Amino acid sequence: MDSQNEANKIHLSDLKPKMHFVGKVTKLELFGAFVDIGAEQPGLVHISKLMHGHVNRIQDVIKEGQKVDVWVQKVDPESGRIELTMIKPITLPWKNIKPGVKLSGKIVRLENFGAFIDIGAERPGLVHVSEMSSDYVNNPAEIVNIGDKVDVVVLDLDRKKRQIRLSMKQFEEKEQSEALLQEDEIVPTAMELALRQALNQTDTETNRPTKKTTSSRKQSPDELEDIFSRTLKQRMKNTASSEK
Question: Which of 94, 96, 124, 215 could form a disulfide linkage to 116, CB 3.0–4.6 angstroms apart?
């Protein structure tokens, strides 16, 4: 290997726990597999870190030359040892999972009754088919596929059973409700305030009772337009003066 490729290698001192790499399996042993992640030397994935559950033979899980997703578990620069894992680290602890919390995740499994979504917790959460859309859904595969990224909200969880119930439908409803609240809280501009006052004043002057005289008459559309215009200009003038 030439000096330029050596210089491009990742130093062990730059590796940190939970860093993610796509590496190539270079060698299989009874106790684990060595994976090249572009560092100064390959890292070791112990047989117990290949996947959840018991593994009898490494060859049943991976092969030499295969590209795999790995995460740094531990690094010892002095001994030059890199410990890797193919089990994705937990990024969302149970204490941070509460009803109403909005999350993003990836669909990892589809069943007739719903979809399992990886949200970074110890286990994937379940979106029941009835919580996937406000419209009727006969089969989850009609609207989502494995690998799709989706937004969800936590409905509830059972910490004892390690079960998480999620909803795609209520996430959308919650987003729409929050958007409406933000619209209601928008402060009107000076132009809008002036327009409102002009309209109110025009209505008042139009509906105000007047003394009966021999020359009494209704205001013409041109007169109403003039009242509106003068009121609007005066309101804008007063607003501009107050803002100086």
Answer: 124
Per-residue CA distances from 103 to 71, 112, 152, 198 (Å):
22, 23, 5, 47
Angle at the Cα of 109 (from 139 to 158), degrees rounded to 5? 100
Supply 196's token pair: 């409102």
Adjacent-strand bridge partners of 21: 70
pTM value is 0.55
Query: Do 47 and 1 contact (CB within 8 A), yes or no?
Result: no
Residue 130 corresponds to which tokens in the numbers above? 């009835």
Rounded to 10 degrees, the C-alpha dihedral 191/195/201/202 comes to 140
3-state secondary structure of 52: coil
Give helix then strand counts, H and E, for the chain: 4, 10
pLDDT digits (tens, 9 = 90+) for 180-211: 766 655 556 666 666 666 666 655 555 555 44
Q: Which residues pair with 43 in a beta bridge?
A: 35
